[in-house]
Amino acid sequence: MSRIAEVDTKFSHYLIEDEIYNGRPARVLYGGDRLVAQSGMPRDDSLEPLFDYNQRFREIVKGVQPKRLLQLGGGAFTLPSVLLKEHKGMQLDVVEVDSELPDIARQYFGLKPCRQLTIYVKDGNQYVAETEHMYDMIIMDVFEDAAIPVTFRTAAFMRNMRMHTAKRGIVAVNVIASLQGLNSNVLRILHARLRAVFPMVEIFPAARDYSLHMSQNYVLVAHDGTWNLAPFMMRQPVPLPKLS
Phi/psi at 139 (nearest 5 deg)? Predict the structure, then answer.
């Protein structure tokens, strides 16, 4: 492991390290005291994202082929960098509240400016409430440490995302939770509030193996019910267990 840099911003203390991550040479952005890996890119020849939930996002984008995509939460912009290489005709808007993260992404993670990419330094909740754009897909990957901020869990926020999702549009949300037990609360809240505004909400495990009671990454995918996403995905959807 090799520490590349430490950066303090208004919102966090970041560590940038080169290491072996899940068996791959990688550069990883950690927040706080190295407790949470916030972004990472492989340092091998594969475009496959380092984190499994980003791979699930990538599979959906490849299958759906959105013309305009919104990502809430940029991190080190590792997923946008992959998507821009693979989808030359797609417009990608990224909203990131920390004004220094785009510079960190450019300096340490290879982010390159291009006409397809527009970066908004703004709170994602405020952006979704105020924007006039319509999106074929919205990706939400917003965390404070390992928790989704409360303002991104509200019914009003879900309605605003729905309002700016185009016909046959899709919303995909990264969440860290369990399927059962106390740690399932955030997953159940997000599922219920998305289900109130979208006809279909599916839960895709990010990892190959999942546990009912262990907190891990899931991708919640909301749409109008006309999409069959299973053929695009390496992981199949799982049901939300009933409360006992």
Answer: -105, 130
CA dist 208 → 66, 167, 233, 235, 238 (Å): 26, 31, 12, 7, 12
Residue keyed to tokens 């490849």: 62
**Regions in the chain scoring below 50 on pLDDT:** none
Q: Which residue blocks in the chain are alpha helix, DSSP H?
A: 52-64, 78-86, 101-108, 124-130, 155-163, 185-195
Residues ≥6 apart with Cβ < 8 Å to 209 = none
Q: Which residues contact 121 (CB under 8 A, 6 or more apart)?
A: 96, 97, 98, 99, 102
User: In this structure, what token pair is assigned to residue 158?
Assistant: 């879900």
pTM of the full structure = 0.96
Domains delineated in the chain: 48-232 (3.40.50.150)
- A 10 A CB-CB count for 225 gives 11
Q: What is the DSSP letter of 123?
A: -
78: number of Cβ within 10 Å: 26
Give how far Cα 31 sits from Cα of 94, 126, 183, Å. 19, 23, 22
For 66-120, the pLDDT digits (tens) are 999 999 999 999 999 999 999 999 999 999 999 999 999 999 999 998 999 999 9
- Contacts with 133 (C-beta within 8 Å, 6 or more apart), sequence order: 68, 70, 93, 164
